[in-house]
Design brief:
The chain has 248 residues and is mainly α. It contains eleven helices and no strands.
Length: 248
């Protein structure tokens, strides 16, 4: 079961990985990076939690998804705070998201984290919603919101050699109100830069529809996690909308 889950996880990550230097093979080091670190970011319990996850894997017992996402966000927040300072941090951010998604998908494929039923997957994005287990309107809307925000960040980097919009993301400590306020702000910025085009139009409609139909029953940490996933995997959405190769 473990090796079947490893293979299935690799298949999905390989399908959506656009980073040429990233290894899609799943191994325990991708889980370890979030719980055992030389940096003083983690609590004294983190190593204990890591060992508990290992035990759950080998005993095929239910694992705590919320705890996994909590520790994922500790790493992601640290990187996001430095995105404006170091070019390499963008690559680190995306590899961190891919590692965290690998962990979650591995747990799902192993059957130790519950999988939901896909709700409302639009035809254009149905496959990515299904593959990444974005099984609610809220997860889908937040993922797409992360995509459009990343596109705006790239536009600012190109125009300003800076990303002032990062401050609006509050180091990935946003709540429901913060997320609801992002889309109008982002759309206005694209108009201000005379850059509102096909992908902005498609994504803004998709985000509006999904978030309007959301029950918003995710924790703040879960909301920020799915938003971060969209920020990292935005090239896949470009490929779906435009076609072509957006590998870097």
């Amino acid at each position: 079961k473990i090796f079947q889950a490893k293979y299935k996880t690799k298949e999905i990550i390989q399908k959506y990985n656009t980073l040429k230097k990233y290894n899609p093979n799943y191994n325990i080091s991708k889980l370890k990076r979030f719980f055992i670190s030389k940096e003083k970011l983690l609590t004294i319990d983190s190593e204990k939690f890591f060992l508990e996850f290992i035990e759950k894997i080998f005993k095929i017992q239910p694992a705590n998804q919320s705890l996994l996402i909590k520790y994922t966000l500790i790493a992601l927040r640290s990187i996001v705070n430095n995105l404006n300072k170091f070019e390499g941090e963008i690559f680190n951010f995306e590899t961190c998201v891919l590692d965290s998604l690998s962990n979650l998908l591995f747990f799902i494929n192993l059957g130790i984290v519950e999988i939901g039923y896909l709700s409302g997957g639009g035809k254009m994005f149905e496959n990515i919603y299904k593959d990444l287990n974005l099984d609610t309107y809220n997860k889908q809307g937040l993922f797409m919101l992360g995509c459009i925000c990343r596109i705006l960040l790239d536009k600012q980097r190109e125009r300003l050699n800076n990303m002032p919009f990062l401050n609006k993301l509050k180091s990935l400590k946003m709540n429901k109100k913060d997320f609801q306020e992002l889309l109008p702000f982002v759309i206005n910025k694209f108009y201000e830069y005379d850059s509102y085009g096909k992908i902005q139009d498609i994504l803004s409609k998709e985000i509006s529809e999904k978030l309007l139909r959301s029950d918003w029953n995710l924790s703040n940490e879960e909301m920020n996690f799915y938003f971060a996933c969209g920020m990292a995997l935005y090239r896949n959405i470009k490929q779906i909308v435009y076609g072509g190769d957006y590998s870097e």
